[in-house]
Amino acid sequence: MNLRPRAVNFDDVWSKLKETAEAIISLKPIERLTWDHNFSDIYFVCVSVPETQSRQLYNAVRDCLEIHTKELRRSLEDQTGDYLLSAYNREWSKYKQGAGYLHNLYCYLNKQLAKEKMDAESQHTFIADDSEGPFPHLGVGDLAFAIWKRELIIPLASKLVKHIIGLIQQIRKLEGTYSAINLADIRGAILSFVEVNELFLNESFLGQQKSPFYFGWRKFCY
């Protein structure tokens, strides 16, 4: 493949990347060929001439994730009790895995963002957030988690925490009925509050996301 930088029509490329991003974050199957083509498209967007379009790509990914999480929040807002806790954990489990795969797909963009931040810090340059929106220099995985925290954890925290505390009190007093599902959901929700803040800083997690996994019936090795 010729890796020489070239002009790129961002709108045309993003229409394909968006479809893949929406599938990955929802853990829907994609073809290996689609992954490979998207990986190349991301590279050429980042090195495009006459100027890079990496920031435009980053903002588009951010907008895509925001739309997705807002839709999830609307679907969860009317839920209560065990139904809310179970649905929240189900969606978080999918989103967490999808964020890891998306982080790997956009690894070249992540490297550019990291270099941009390091260059600014080495030159003692202040990077203003307001011109680029929130989270201007997070890698795509960290971005996905930051958006989940803002769009789901913070708005739903009072309902989730209240129900979790109630379940824990029941368990301690051995009142009512509870099951392994209750315990798993309690653990999953509490862990999600921690994971959104630190998971993508953990190299072992990123290593796990590079291992083989299955989308539908197809096996992928990243």
Give a brief outline of the structure:
With 222 residues, the chain is an all-alpha fold.
Separate helix tally:
8
CATH architecture: Up-down Bundle
Overall pLDDT confidence? 83
Helix content: over 70%
Q: The CATH topology is what?
A: 5 helical Cullin repeat like
* Approximate strand percentage: under 5%
Protein name: Cullin N-terminal domain-containing protein
Domain Cullin N-terminal: 14-198
Keywords: Ubl conjugation pathway
GO molecular function: ubiquitin protein ligase binding
Describe this protein's structure:
- This is Cullin N-terminal domain-containing protein.
- Residues 14-198 form the Cullin N-terminal domain.
- It comes from Meloidogyne enterolobii (Root-knot nematode worm).
- Keywords: Ubl conjugation pathway.
- This protein has 222 residues and is mostly helical.
- The chain has one domain: Cullin Repeats (5 helical Cullin repeat like).
- It contains 8 helices and 2 strands.
- The protein has helices at 10-25, 32-46, 54-77, 81-105, 107-122, 140-173, 180-198, 203-209, and strands at 213-215, 218-220.
- A two-stranded antiparallel sheet has the order 1-2.
- The protein starts with 9 loop residues before the first helix and ends with a strand.
- Mean pLDDT is 83; it is low at 201-222.
SSE blueprint:
Layout: H1 10-25, H2 32-46, H3 54-77, H4 81-105, H5 107-122, H6 140-173, H7 180-198, H8 203-209, E1 213-215, E2 218-220
Antiparallel strand pairs: 1-2
InterPro entries: Cullin (IPR045093), Cullin_N (IPR001373), Cullin_repeat-like_dom_sf (IPR016159)
Domain Cullin N-terminal: 14-198
Family: Belongs to the cullin family.
